[in-house]
């Protein structure tokens, strides 16, 4: 689902002009922000198209990835609460995702071996088989999307994106009014 509904972004000159009417508009920051959103939308669209060919949504794919036991340091199975926290979604959302995955035979709920009051979620053989089908193409798409960047550019991009994520986390953790956020940002 796209976050930015603009196909063509405003030219920098237009942002400069708009800043005359809106003094809080930083044309450079707005240009980067809009390009970041558009890039995210396009990357999401490419990945979503690939997953749709396998009749699976991004949310369901995320749950299956979190349960995939072929990734190191990823003990299995997981509780629905752990999955919700790892995916950054509400527990009710995760319950819905697990329900549809279970209905389709891709995951199973089982009593937790340590605490019988809790349920654990694990991939079924059918779920593992689906992931073995999806992942090769998924990884090829990721690589294809990044072919325009050198290894050094990729590392720089990751470093820059992490800076934005840290700042977004800082801004979202505060209950300050939007006008107060400017005071919290470095110049």
Q: Can you walk me through this structure?
A:
The chain is 63% helix and 5% strand. The protein is built from 8 helices and 2 strands, in the order αααααββααα. The chain has helices at residues 12-21, 27-52, 58-67, 80-87, 91-103, 125-145, 151-173, 178-184, and strands at residues 107-111, 119-123. A two-stranded antiparallel ribbon has the order 1-2. Strand 1 (107-111) and strand 2 form a beta hairpin. The two termini are 33 Å apart. The mean pLDDT is 85.
| Order of secondary-structure elements | HHHHHEEHHH
Given as residue ranges, the uncertain stretches (5+ residues, pLDDT < 50) are none
| Largest sheet data | 2 strands, antiparallel
Shape: elongated
Give the strand tally: 2
Mean pLDDT across every amino acid position: 85
* Helicity, as a percent range: 55-70%
Strand content bin: 5-15%
Distance between the termini: 33 Å
Number of helices: 8
Class from secondary-structure proportions:
mainly alpha
